[in-house]
Design a protein that fits this description.
Elements (H helix, E strand, L loop, with lengths): L2 E5 L2 E3 L4 E9 L6 E8 L6 E8 L8 E2 L7 E6 L4 E7 L7 E8 L17 E2 L3 E5 L2
Parallel strand pairs: 2-11
Antiparallel strand pairs: 1-3, 3-8, 4-5, 4-9, 5-6, 7-8, 9-10, 9-11
Length: 131
């Protein structure tokens, strides 16, 4: 059974930095489409970054326009862990952050920024940005 678990959320001041983690288990194939999403208060869930991995190689990460320059997605294949670094957060970044997995990314890759493309989700980790 697939299990995705996010961690690392919390309260952070504007201009700080935060690194979220997502541990992945129970998915038989190392080949996956992995994504980070967030959902702010009263907002729809939105995609931030997506990568396609075979376990030994990774297609270059694709970022949503809202994430470019301030969010960095990385992975540790050996630990089956996905990371999201948030640089210089601001109050608009306050949201529940989720990781998601699907056996294969959609084509074109932009379609993989839709939450509907993913079957497996973590429960999320809350990030609150305030001074």
């Amino acid at each position: 059974q697939a299990n995705l678990m996010e961690s690392g959320g919390g309260s952070v001041q504007p201009g700080g930095s935060l690194k979220l983690s997502c541990s992945i288990s129970g998915l038989p194939s190392p080949a996956l489409c992995l994504g980070w999403f967030r959902q702010g208060p009263g907002k729809e869930r939105e995609g931030l970054a997506v990568l396609s991995t075979t376990g030994s190689s990774t297609v270059p990460i694709t970022y949503a326009n809202i994430a470019k320059g301030r969010f960095t997605l990385s992975e540790d294949n050996a630990k089956r862990t996905l990371y999201l670094q948030i640089h210089n957060p601001n109050p608009e970044d306050t949201a529940m952050y989720y990781c998601a997995a699907e056996p294969q990314c959609a084509r074109p890759i932009i379609e993989s920024f839709s939450p509907h493309q993913y079957k497996h989700w973590g429960r999320g980790t809350q990030v609150t940005v305030s001074s």
